[in-house]
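4.2 Preliminary Data

To establish feasibility before requesting continued support, the project team ran the inverse folding procedure on a target of 425 residues. The structure was first converted into the token representation described in Section 3, and no sequence information of any kind was made available to the design step. The complete token record follows.
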């Protein structure tokens, strides 16, 4: 389900306030703390993301108006060589017609950038999010997802770098991610993921930085297949990546960031979703004029990868378990006046889908393959009458085609939302 679009500050979920209470006076001249309130009203024409010919059960409405009220707070404070930052948001979501979907969501994020007198630095971060999962209509041909499904995500990451001012930098990273769903239909997709990587980067000159890293991940699915009323059969995934990266700043108005990764994923039981090939991303940021900028991002990844969230494709509540997907997003921003900004975003995604089902009694596996294509066009506007206040509206249209209705249905829908935000800083 797609809730009303919220301003960017609410997608920086915070715990830092808790730690910063005892951090002492701020070093920066501006107040490092902020607190605010957002009220938004939106309308979804296809709330359950169903096909044109798919009927809903009695008592449910395909379209709905949604109200969301959010309180958020955050901090961004430097303490000597260290920097603490993050945000917290608490939101209540109310539906005019489908009241069973009413829910409370939250986002919490805390990060610490640290460095020593010598050449050692790093980053520590933790996050916890709860949202209503987006409806997918993926339970089989003709079936409709209408059950309220809450997705909870917890994540912790650590990075360590050696070589701050040298041409060479060694970087090691550790990560943990856990995803849980409240709906029984998604039990097989709940997982715990651990990852670690080790890499080396080389700054060729002031404009170009090259790097390579070996990245390993292990994912456990404790409830992949139900074998009886009270027991489950587990599955696990092993993933290996060789990341080749480049960060190029050709001039003062543009930057290019590239990643190419030979990738191999292997499941113990869900072997139909095994993947061996290339993943990666290419990003280009261009300040076209003093008032206009363009951001282009091409991304190819497996559906479960945390890169989806880090690059901003997988918004809170989005569930994607495609074998592999390729997405292109182009976003333009133009400052009309000193207080008014307009945005336009085009997103196109192609996903390869696979589902492997093992019969409980016979043990035989059946595999279903397919793909879908999704195109979204969004327009938005922002007005900031004062430093503390902002008003905005967004409108978008989404259309999806599918080659296999058992895995993904063709659909279309429109959304409209407007919000008012007030921040004290």
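Position-by-position output of the design step:
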């Amino acid at each position: 389900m797609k809730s009303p679009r919220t301003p960017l500050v609410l997608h920086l979920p915070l715990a830092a306030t808790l730690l910063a209470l005892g951090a002492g006076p701020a070093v920066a001249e501006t107040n490092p703390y902020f607190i605010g309130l957002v009220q938004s009203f939106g309308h979804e024409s296809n709330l359950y993301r169903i096909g044109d010919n798919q009927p809903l059960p009695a008592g449910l409405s395909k379209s709905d108006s949604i109200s969301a009220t959010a309180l958020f707070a955050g901090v961004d404070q430097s303490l000597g060589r260290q920097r603490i930052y993050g945000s917290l948001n608490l939101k209540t979501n109310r539906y005019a017609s489908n009241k069973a979907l009413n829910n409370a969501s939250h986002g919490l994020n805390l990060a610490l950038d640290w460095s020593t007198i010598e050449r050692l630095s790093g980053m520590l971060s933790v996050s916890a999010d709860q949202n209503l999962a987006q409806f997918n209509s993926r339970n089989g041909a003709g079936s409709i997802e209408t059950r309220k499904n809450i997705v909870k995500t917890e994540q912790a990451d650590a990075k360590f770098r050696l070589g701050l001012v040298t041409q060479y930098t060694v970087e090691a990273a550790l990560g943990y991610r856990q995803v849980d769903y409240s709906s029984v239909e998604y039990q097989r997709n709940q997982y715990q993921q651990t990852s670690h990587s080790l890499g080396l980067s080389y700054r060729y000159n002031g404009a170009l930085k090259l790097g390579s890293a070996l990245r390993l991940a292990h994912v456990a699915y404790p409830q992949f297949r139900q074998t009886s009323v009270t027991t489950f059969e587990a599955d696990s995934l092993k993933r290996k990546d060789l990341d080749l990266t480049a960060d190029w700043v050709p001039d003062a108005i543009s930057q290019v960031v590239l990643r190419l990764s030979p990738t191999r994923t292997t499941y113990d039981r869900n072997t139909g979703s095994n993947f061996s090939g290339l993943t990666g991303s290419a990003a280009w940021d261009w300040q076209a004029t003093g008032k206009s900028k363009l951001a282009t991002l091409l991304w190819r990844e497996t559906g479960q990868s945390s890169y989806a969230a880090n690059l901003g494709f997988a918004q809170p509540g989005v569930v994607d378990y495609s074998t592999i997907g390729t997405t292109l997003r182009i976003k333009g921003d133009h400052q009309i006046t000193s207080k008014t900004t307009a945005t336009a975003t085009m997103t196109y995604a192609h996903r390869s889908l696979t589902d492997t089902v093992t019969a409980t009694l016979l043990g035989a596996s059946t595999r279903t393959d397919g793909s879908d294509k999704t195109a979204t066009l969004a327009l938005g506007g922002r007005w900031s009458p004062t430093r503390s206040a902002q008003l905005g509206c967004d409108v978008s249209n989404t259309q999806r085609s599918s080659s296999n209705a058992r895995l993904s249905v063709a659909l279309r829908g429109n959304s409209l939302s407007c919000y008012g935000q007030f921040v004290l800083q």
